Amino acid sequence: MKRALAPLLSAALLLGAVYGGYRSYVHNSPGVTVLKGVIGSEKAEFFADPDVIAALERRGLRVTAETAGSRDIATRALIGYDFAFPSGSAAAQQTARIAGKKAQVTEVFYTPLAVATWKKLMPTLGRAGALKGETLNVARLLSLAQNGKRWRDLTGSPYRSARTVLVSTTDPRTSSSAAAFLGVAAFTQNREQVPDARNVPGLLPKLRPLFALQGYQDATSQGPFEDYLAIGMGKAPLVLVYEAQFITAGRAGRLSSGMRLVYPTPNTYTRHALVSLSDGGQRLAQAMTEPELQVLAAKHGWRTLDPKVFTAAMQSGNTNTSAKDTGDAVDLPAAPVLDALVQGVTGGTQ
Predict the structure, then answer these.
(1) Which CATH superfamily is domain 9-110+271-315 in?
(2) 182, HSE (Cβ side, Cα atoms, 13 Å)
(3) I want to staple 14 with a disulfide (CB 3.0 to 4.6 A). Which of 41, 44, 122, 302 is the partner?
(4) Per-run averaged pLDDT (10 residues), the chain, 350 residues
């Protein structure tokens, strides 16, 4: 197995598709259309929810899904698929362009970037000037990495590690969450302006430490979050996640008392749009925007098309965590500029 603790049942169920298979989220039923799709791993738990399965089955739909990094999804021809569900508008639009005229893009929900961390680390990050309340200063954090600061160098750090102070991310070549974080970091290093192509060469030396010092990076966003949940602070002191992932874990009772969610500043919202590739895929897209499925999405921490639905879910008290105001949200660079930044900080294609 690729991951040290992958035998954990919940992780295996959610990530089974990573090992080459597809998961069908409902048993065989007559009169149900089976849809084949590829999704970002952060949405696997949503489609595995029995309530979601039942809601789709009432509409005559059954989802079978393979997980992949969203930027990887956007490079595939997807012949024989009914839908794709990456994260990020750019990935959805690129997926649709490759698929051609038959493809339709339907926005379903969105979520901000967040960082999963630990209560005992928060005072240390505060003293280092990187954290104020529940807001993580991206510029200050990047400065620590640029200056080679290690966790053991920080005053009063309970984490006496030689590792550089970094947020663990996915591989930005395959994953939209890491690419979005790169875009946010580029904003902080470009005099708080969205960079264009002219800025890329000067930004690369400043941004490379964010990724070059991490070592191995997963292709999808669920991988590092599973490390956080299963292995703990020693493996994952700061992990880039989607807010919805943390809320979903809280709903499932998987968060310990020492786990905390903080929000990077500046931040960005990632839109999740379903790309329908067949008539069945279009039926799924329609279903996902209907009130019943939107309520279920909100319970999994996804910010819905109607903000009131999400607010109601957070106030219901059954999610075991709550969303916060993400503060300063910025636009990402144009897709070609972000691609150039990704290639520049990683050294090329995977």
Answers:
(1) Periplasmic binding protein-like II (3.40.190.10)
(2) 34
(3) 44
(4) 38 36 50 95 95 97 95 93 95 94 95 96 97 96 94 95 93 93 97 97 94 83 91 93 94 94 95 97 98 97 96 76 75 95 81
